[in-house]
Amino acid sequence: MKKPFEVIAIIGKPRDQQAIQTHKELYQWLTTLGYSVFIDDRLKEILTDIPQDHFSSLIELGKQADLAIVVGGDGNMLGAARVLSRFDISVIGVNRGNLGFLTDLNPEDFQTHLQAVLQGEYMEEERFLLEAEVHRHGQIKSHNAALNEAVLHPGKIAHMIEFEVYIDDKFAFSQRSDGLIISTPTGSTAYSLSGGGPIVSPSLNAITLVPMFPHTLSCRPLVVDGKRRIKLVVSPDNRGTQEVSCDGQISLPVSPGDEVIIYQSPNVLKLIHPKDYSYYSVLRSKLGWSSKLF
């Protein structure tokens, strides 16, 4: 029987010695099983006992591999997802971080679950990303993708900014606030949740707009259809430079008078989980929800 995955990539820049050990264990275990294994080339200096020709850039791994195993926290998954979503590759995570909403394999016994996944026993879901573009005088000045959220904010100094929000080019509302979080369902349990946004089931095609400390009590989170195109027109009277932050990892500078366009990316992240995965079980354990009463 043909294996569902032939070429496997191991991704993620480790923060500590334990994570490095997980990379080594994964590489040795998968190689022993007869898989063709390649590793994120950011690890070349650390994993010196692995042959140099087994390292590749994230883009090359996206082109070559059928499955990417991301070792680390959700931050590693977010960074990998923005690149890997452009390619036909499935992604699974081994949690070596703090929260682990996106990385569900336990590093202490990954073999059991991963063995089943490699034999085709897994659940697959598609998570959509957002594209964020900064337009100035009708030209795109910068752009990037976000799996969790794109956030308009004042940059380094916290102060009120003014902007107008258009949805499919129809004026929706204007706002004076510390910024706006525009989130995917995946990001609804991240920064958006801290800002008072709703938890949105990952299968929903919806985008959430969550105001950050708005200067009015009537301002509430808004959930719109995922196909809507959102435009933020930044007031020409704002002081200094603002930013659009993508997943808290990439910053796009925004000047007064710029327009920020945010829309659903044509690319999706093919996230896979073990067969016994439950989104609500993850929420219970990560958010401290109560267990069953009876």
* Strand proportion: 35-45%
Low-confidence stretches: none
CATH fold type of the largest domain: Tumour Suppressor Smad4
Q: What's the overall geometry?
A: globular
User: Under the CATH scheme, which class of the largest domain?
Assistant: Mainly Beta
Number of strands: 17
The CATH superfamily title of the largest domain: Probable inorganic polyphosphate/atp-NAD kinase, domain 2
Function: Involved in the regulation of the intracellular balance of NAD and NADP, and is a key enzyme in the biosynthesis of NADP. Catalyzes specifically the phosphorylation on 2'-hydroxyl of the adenosine moiety of NAD to yield NADP.
InterPro entries: ATP-NAD_kinase_N, ATP-NAD_kinase_PpnK-typ_C, NAD/diacylglycerol_kinase_sf, NADK
Pfam family, one: NAD_kinase_C
EC number: 2.7.1.23
Give a quick rundown of the structure.
The N and C termini lie far apart (44 Å). 19% of the residues lie in helices and 39% in strands. The protein is an alpha/beta fold.
What would you note in describing this structure?
One of its GO terms (molecular function) is NAD+ kinase activity. One of its GO terms (biological process) is NAD+ metabolic process. The active site is at 74 (proton acceptor). The chain is α/β, with parallel strands linked by helices. The protein folds into two domains: 7-121 and 275-287, Probable inorganic polyphosphate/atp-NAD kinase, domain 1 (Rossmann fold); 129-266, Probable inorganic polyphosphate/atp-NAD kinase, domain 2 (Tumour Suppressor Smad4, Sandwich). Strands 1, 2, 3, 4, 5, 6, 7, 9, 10, 14 and 17 form an eleven-stranded mixed β-sheet that branches. It has a six-stranded antiparallel β-sheet with strand order 13-12-11-8-15-16, with no helix packed on it. It has helices at residues 17-32, 58-64, 74-84, 110-118, 191-194, 279-287, and strands at 7-11, 36-40, 55-56, 67-72, 90-95, 122-136, 139-146, 149-153, 161-167, 170-177, 179-183, 206-212, 222-225, 230-234, 242-246, 250-254, 259-274.
